[in-house]
Amino acid sequence: MSPEIETLSASPAFDLTEDQRAVRAMVRDFAEREIRPIAMQIDESHDFPAATVKKMGELGLMGLFVPDTYGGAGLDYVSYVIAIEELSRVCASHGVIASAHSSLVCYPILAYGTEAQKQKYLTRLASGEWIGAYCLTEPNAGSNAANQQTTAVRDGDDYVLNGTKLFVTNAGPSHVLVVYASTERALGPKGISAFIVEDGTPGVQKGKKEMKLGIHASDTREIAFVNARIPKENLLGENNKGYSVALATLGGGRIGIAAQALGIAQGALEAAVRYAGERKQFDRTIGEFDAIRAMLADSAIEVATARLLTYQAAWLRDQGRPHVKEASLAKWHSSEAATRCANWAIQVHGGYGYLAEFTVERLWRDARICEIYEGTTEVQKMVVAAQVLKEQAVETPARSPSGS
Ligand SMILES: Cc1cc2nc3c(=O)[nH]c(=O)nc-3n(C[C@H](O)[C@H](O)[C@H](O)COP(=O)(O)OP(=O)(O)OC[C@H]3O[C@@H](n4cnc5c(N)ncnc54)[C@H](O)[C@@H]3O)c2cc1C
Questions:
Q1: Taking every annotated instance into account, which residue ranges of this chain make up the domain Acyl-CoA dehydrogenase/oxidase N-terminal (predicted)?
Q2: What's the pTM value of the predicted model, to 2 decimals?
């Protein structure tokens, strides 16, 4: 790694371990060699990058935190976020493909799956042989994910699924879906269950690929379930406990999206620094002008704070310590930081920044989704507010009625 890049990308709250540094070096090398040359082209064509995703599987990037007993790399969550950051620094589509697959599919099977489910599904997912997708969002269950209308009705040895899921990342190429459905409508969120659904199950219908503002190479589709029969062995976790699975999954998923946003912000800062050092106007490089330097400095603090929050949340998760608030803080801040940094990077590039030929335009389009999926910024603020109010209640016991 060049000293320049080391300085730009390594200011964590703590020293990284040898393993974590090795992951960064390996993923950066891979992303620069294999992904950078196709990033522009797949943004234009909207093609899912099957060949590089296959290589990511071979490198262990599709199962980084999955124990090696289930075919994963057996590394920690900090290593995982470093990998997502490095992929996204070059191509945010690759970042979200790996992130949705790992955080939203490998994790719940690892944490809640039976041994048989882990042997059958997790081993293939962790090696990248199979790709996973996560089906929670519905037409009337977006920010309010508890409002699940998809139903799963027990019939003999099967559950019969009916309903429609929207915006499913990795939908087209997926082999395995983790699907949430209402098993007991009257119980609301306490009547939701999670299921592992195999691609090719009769009644599972994938829609057309959505055309999006950014992350073009990430395959997003609607998936409908029409009397799809799922064997009872594919219930993931306990019956009616699926909403807890979804929330625990999103806790880690949000750190993955924070890492994706961090990578985009880092890529934007690097592009802006590079251009500011090259472009000349008024017989000086534009990096000599205070207005440009201010944008670079503003970007630097956004990247540094995004990195601190993201690594801290991942580290807390590795320690098995509470991290609901920290995951939301990281996701909220990093995603807005990515948009701001990409915006400044365009400004530093002037008119060239607005051209599709220059990477910063793609970074800006790719950044925007981070403020929306896996809980919008408004939802992250709701989570953070609920957590700080809870902390405050513990620290300041209620006063007695006399006010003493
Ligand atoms: C490209 C892409 C990929 C995605 N991938 C997946 C996936 O793989 N799996 C999956 O299940 N889902 C996925 N999603 C769905 C995504 O998580 C949802 O779009 C997101 O959670 C928001 O839900 P919604 O679109 O229904 O918006 P809504 O919930 O309708 O929100 C609309 C607006 O209202 C605001 N709002 C809503 N409720 C409140 C409130 N109580 N207080 C204040 N403001 C509020 C929101 O913040 C937002 O600004 C993806 C979405 C996209 C665009």
A1: 17-129
A2: 0.95
**Cα 146 from Cα 128, distance rounded (Å):** 30
Domain-located, residue 396: no
Q: Which atom of ligand 1 is nearest to the CA of 375?
A: 21
Q: Is 374 a catalytic residue?
A: yes
Residue among 230, 240, 224 nearest 163 (CA)? 224
Q: Per the domain annotation, does 284 fall within a domain?
A: yes
Query: pLDDT tens digit string along 179-216?
Result: 999 999 999 999 999 999 999 999 999 999 999 999 99
Does the CA dihedral 148-170-90-216 come out positive or negative? negative
Candidate from 97, 373, 380 with most ligand 1 atoms within 8 A of CB, to mutate: 373
Are 146 and 159 in a shared domain? yes
Cα dihedral 220/77/6/15 (nearest 10): 160
Look at the chain and count its residues: 404
Query: Is residue 9 a part of any domain in this protein?
Result: yes
- Rounded to 5°, the CA angle 358-373-150 comes to 140
| Domain match, 253 and 383 both | yes
